[in-house]
Amino acid sequence: MRTQTLGQTSLQSSRLAYGCWRIATRGDAAADYETARAAIFAAVDAGYTLFDHADIYCDGEAERVFGRILRESPGLRARMVIATKGGIRFKNRPAGAPVRYDFSRGHLLAQAELSLRQLGVETIDLLHLHRPDYLMDADEVAGAFAELRQSGKVREFGVSNFSPSQFSLLQSRLPFPLAVNQVEVSLLQLYALHDGTLDQCQQLKVTPLAWSPLGAGLLGSGGKDLLPGQAHYNPKAILPVLDRIAGERGVTREVVALAWLLKHPSRLIPIVGSTNPARIRQHAAADQLELTREEWYHLVTAARGAEMP
Fold first, then answer.
1. Does a structural domain hold residue 309?
2. Which of 16, 72, 219, 304 has a Cα-to-Cα distance from 44 of 20 to 30 A?
3. Strand, coil or helix: 86
4. Is 57 an active-site residue?
5. pLDDT at 39
6. Per the residue annotation, which of 57, 101, 134, 191 is the catalytic one?
7. How many domains does the chain have?
């Protein structure tokens, strides 16, 4: 798989990333381990180098099982860019507390330390703020980032689900550029094409990462329910167009949907989340498929449910 630079950093990523939120569940630990190991090795063998985590995925179990696999296969770490996210706090911790977002210095430093322990690594390559904290003090966040960077615990920083104005606010307080903004983008969620997010990424040379690039599986062979942000889109209108292009190109509909994202000039990186080794390898083929402008707009038209104005 081809690689690209993440933002203006020295980090190199594969054109597709592997998302680790499904590699562990609250079920059987042994089964989780086998699922995670098969998925991770399939991704590495297929050329994925960016592995995306969060401290909250399965209450930390995703990072812990990943860390176990790294310990058992020490050579893997050198082949990976490891990203994780922090800033979300669970309900009832402590008792009576709501779900909330927390970018306070103490919480960010503590969660980075937790992720380092769970992953079993000395340095996190890329740390994201998971969802915007309405109480974000940009100067406080900048100070926490500086501490983590100076201590060698985190190499680079990014954000997730930030609006352009939120991104600009935080960037204005930092002496170094943010590397990424991870947002929901797919043929079932076109918002980033309209709200300035992808425009800002091009302008500032920030790499956008796309979570749920297959619309929670609805653009592939899995998935049953629309996510909240997909309410205005109709998968049944998109799938026939995906299938037509896939048939003409000799690939699967998932590969076409991922190639649609890869064509955007912001150099967007889709985060693939399947734990099926065959699908993980199959999705990597999107890196080799270059859609025409006409094919790209046929898909946009289907997603919009109307011709372009």
1. no
2. 219
3. strand
4. yes
5. 97
6. 57
7. 1
